[in-house]
């Protein structure tokens, strides 16, 4: 009897073995994902750097020159000037965020502060519907509605930064809005009560107290939206014009990092300079999205203090 | 013993209710009340949880708007303020409120107090400085924070935060202060300090205070109303309520037989 108890106490049971297996399994899968992430970053980095190490492109030229013709060699150097695409990506992203932020703030404030539960029940699914629409559909709508509209208003082809930004605005504002709503509803009710009990109107309590307290969350929402806009390829490609030219106006055909990648990667041969140059664009994209992530982290850390 | 005992104080009245009842949806949470609160006195509202004393208190400055339906009259400055014609923002400036949990804004001590003043249009720095000092002195917090007015209000202790909330409330110069269990989140020392502050404020403010703490009601208040299950059973001088209650329910409650 005594021995049985001692044996049971000191030997593993079926349940403890199962526990160890479970831990091992989840650990292996988690490590796999980490290895995968590192591998993807490593691969893109190595491929992206080749342009500069093997093909002899100057990094500064890559970032600032606007002649993109990786196949041809001029003055002994391949023409790999990515400035139009970098600028294009930044411009569509910034413009989309500038248009989307006021919309998102207004809808977010209405939903979290003024709307009844019933109205919210209607608005939430509408917003979710927007996020569920595939990007190619937005791109197509942009192509058949926005681009002709731009053509009529501004002349020219109608392709360019502005239609790109408008399409992106429609794509990112639902995401920003729902994050803004979350940020606003996370502000304690006691803040609002305190303001109201002092005789503040609801609007005064919103813009001096609630918005202030929710600022980090709102910033995070906008940056998330920008990260999404920066990385969006298909919809932008359909309305941007796809010619690697410095944008001369908001409605002149140009390209973004993503649009150039999606439209050209299939036309190049692995290992060629044309192909390497595209990998460099991918590396810029990757660095930018890491930067957006870092920014969100920094804001989150600041919020804790 | 009587079934109910509700007196009318022989003193100037600051605010009174007439047949005021409160409904949450279809449910009647507070039955018709008829209470008069004397000016420059502290009135305690006591009773067990769920007796609707907070509901009553929050109705007085219309904080129950959109939350509950309030019927009947609330008379203040000669008008019925339970009317859709009343400007609730102006009303709440005159009838301030301090909540159960200290709820300073995530701003500096100074900005907490000037928040309401600024949107009232007071911009002059000197005037603001002066009101900040007066209010903090009134709430007995000045000596503790005068060198750190730029510090975040959230860095203060719970008791200091609650006194800051009082300072913030009196900065807009209300006539009445509603206090919803102001000391329930505080330790005994902070509570004592808060009570001392309230006693001092009594010179200039009419106060109505919900409290679960019967010693606190006995120590600080001049009048006491006893609530039970959504009804007011007794309202009298505090000394009578605790030493010579006329209603059996009150007697049982103040002797601690339920609660």
From TrEMBL, chain A:
Any GO BP annotation: phosphate ion transport
Main localisation: membrane
Domain annotation ABC transmembrane type-1: ranges: 86-296
Protein purpose: Part of the binding-protein-dependent transport system for phosphate; probably responsible for the translocation of the substrate across the membrane.
Taxonomic lineage: Bacteria, Bacillati, Bacillota, Bacilli, Lactobacillales
UniProt-listed Gene3D superfamilies: MetI-like
GO MF entry, a single one: phosphate transmembrane transporter activity
Domain of life: Bacteria
Membrane topology summary: Multi-pass membrane protein
Name used for this protein in its record: Phosphate transport system permease protein
Species: Lactobacillus gigeriorum DSM 23908 = CRBIP 24.85
GO cellular component terms, A-Z: plasma membrane
Keywords, comma-separated and alphabetical: Cell membrane, Membrane, Phosphate transport, Transmembrane, Transmembrane helix, Transport
Cellular location(s): Cell membrane
Keyword Membrane (UniProt): yes
Family under the similarity heading: Belongs to the binding-protein-dependent transport system permease family. CysTW subfamily.
Keyword check for Transmembrane: yes
PANTHER family: ABC TRANSPORTER PERMEASE PROTEIN YQGH-RELATED (PTHR30425:SF2), PHOSPHATE TRANSPORT SYSTEM PERMEASE PROTEIN PST (PTHR30425)
Membrane-crossing residue ranges in chain numbering: 24-46, 85-110, 122-147, 153-173, 218-240, 277-296
UniProtKB/TrEMBL annotation, chain B:
Tagged with keyword Membrane: yes
Pfam families: ABC_tran
ABC transporter domain boundaries: 15-254
Cross-referenced PROSITE patterns: ABC_TRANSPORTER_1 (PS00211), ABC_TRANSPORTER_2 (PS50893)
Single Gene Ontology MF annotation: phosphate transmembrane transporter activity
Entry annotated with the keyword Transport: yes
Gene3D superfamilies per UniProt: P-loop containing nucleotide triphosphate hydrolases
Top-rank EC class of the record's enzyme: hydrolase
Matches recorded under CDD domains: ABC_PstB_phosphate_transporter
GO biological process: phosphate ion transmembrane transport
GO annotation, cellular component aspect: membrane
Keywords from the named record: ATP-binding, Cell membrane, Hydrolase, Membrane, Nucleotide-binding, Phosphate transport, Translocase, Transport
InterPro entries (alphabetical): AAA+_ATPase, ABC_transporter-like_ATP-bd, ABC_transporter-like_CS, P-loop_NTPase, PstB-like
EC number: 3.6.3.27
NCBIfam families hit by this protein: 3a0107s01c2 (TIGR00972)
PANTHER family reported for this sequence: ABC TRANSPORTER I FAMILY MEMBER 17, PHOSPHATE IMPORT ATP-BINDING PROTEIN PSTB 2
Protein name (database record): Phosphate ABC transporter ATP-binding protein
Species annotation: Lactobacillus gigeriorum DSM 23908 = CRBIP 24.85
